[in-house]
Design a protein that fits this description.
318 residues; alpha/beta; 7-stranded parallel sheet; two-stranded parallel ribbon; 39% helix; binds uridine-5'-diphosphate
């Protein structure tokens, strides 16, 4: 049994992770300021809830810290860009300080946004990205990039055991129905018989990972021996572990809409085209060779199956 802290544990991935850790009999604490997290998603779970902003110093003693605190959907992280930026940067520093003090192992939720609007496809971890410091996504992307650098430097200076995971688009039960992401929007629109809002021509692609696959990867990564990771990444020329986690199946946003509609044949929704938000990446697909090689991990749940497992959760909100 490990003593575990999940920052941002009332968010979508955090709430799923808390369930999984509780089921595995770990002792779980969740730190969340409820900016986007929802305490109701943790109801009935035997966890300790700390109503705290990750930008404040973290006390307590933990074996593992999962650092998930940061608004992650574009409408939410763009609502208060300075909040988003400082949550990533100051939050990472506080997590690393806590780890330095207690010897906790850290798994930090980085993002495919590190690659920006990528010119290399699919994206391997060695790709440095094609990024914009001055766009509407920059508050999220650049905060996450600085957090990776900070993790590297805490590892170098203080030996903090920190592992970076670049998460590609993930979906599943416990997503916030109001967070404006494509999967939640399309399912809810189809259930409510409202128009399905395709941004732009709907030709941009994403790779959609069911949350259970991601959590399986999280656990394998967190449990991997430090020395094993060290030698694997040394061979790659890196001083810190960094792995993509996503499902390499690539779909246009239009294909996603059609898949959702085919699973809800009673829906009367039709497709409608809306303006494309600024800096919206055109293509995104992870190269997951390193995660396969290093952890023996790869996703097993195809899009159609994952959507079928997700739709029932949203019925209550339709
Ligand atoms: N998108 C869309 N309709 C929506 C919401 C999103 O067409 O109602 C598009 C969005 O422009 C992007 C993709 O779907 O190209 C994924 O958007 P999301 O906000 O889920 O995540 P992102 O990968 O952009 O961070």
């Amino acid at each position: 049994m490990a003593k575990v802290l999940i920052t941002g544990g009332a968010g979508f991935i955090g709430a799923n992770l808390a369930r999984r850790l509780v089921a595995a009999k770990h002792e779980v604490s969740v730190l969340d300021n409820l900016y986007t997290g929802r305490k109701s998603e943790l109801e009935g779970l035997p966890i300790t809830f700390l109503g705290q902003d990750v930008r404040e110093p973290i006390s307590g003693d933990y074996d593992w810290i999962f650092n998930l605190a940061c608004p992650a959907s574009p409408p939410h992280y763009q609502r208060d860009p300075l909040f988003t930026l400082t949550t990533s940067i100051d939050g990472m520093r506080n997590v690393l300080e806590a780890a330095k003090r207690t010897g906790a192992r850290v798994l930090h939720a980085s993002t495919s946004e590190i690659y920006g609007d990528p010119l290399v496809h699919p994206q391997p971890e060695s790709y440095w990205g094609h990024v914009n410091t001055l766009g509407i996504r920059s508050c999220y992307d650049e905060g996450k990039r600085v957090a990776e650098t900070m993790a590297l430097e805490y590892r170098r200076a203080f030996g903090v055991d920190v592992r970076l995971v670049r998460i590609f688009n993930t979906y599943g039960p416990h997503m916030d129905p109001k967070d404006g992401r494509v999967v939640s929007n399309f399912i809810l629109q189809a259930l409510r018989n409202e128009p399905i809002t395709l941004y732009g021509e709907g030709q941009q692609t994403r790779s959609f990972q069911f949350v259970d696959d991601l959590l399986h990867g999280f656990m394998a990564y967190m449990e991997a021996p430090k020395d094993k990771l060290k030698s694997f990444f040394k061979e790659k020329g890196l001083n810190i572990p960094v792995l993509n986690m996503g499902n390499p199946g690539e779909f246009t946003v239009r294909e996603l809409a059609e898949e959702v509609l085919s699973l809800l044949p009673e829906s009367t929704s039709s497709l409608t085209f809306c303006s494309l938000p600024g800096d919206d990446p055109k293509r995104r697909k992870p190269n997951i060779d390193w995660a396969k090689e290093c952890l023996g991990w790869e996703p097993t749940i195809p899009l159609r199956e994952g959507l079928s497992k997700t739709i029932p959760y949203f019925r209550a909100f339709a």
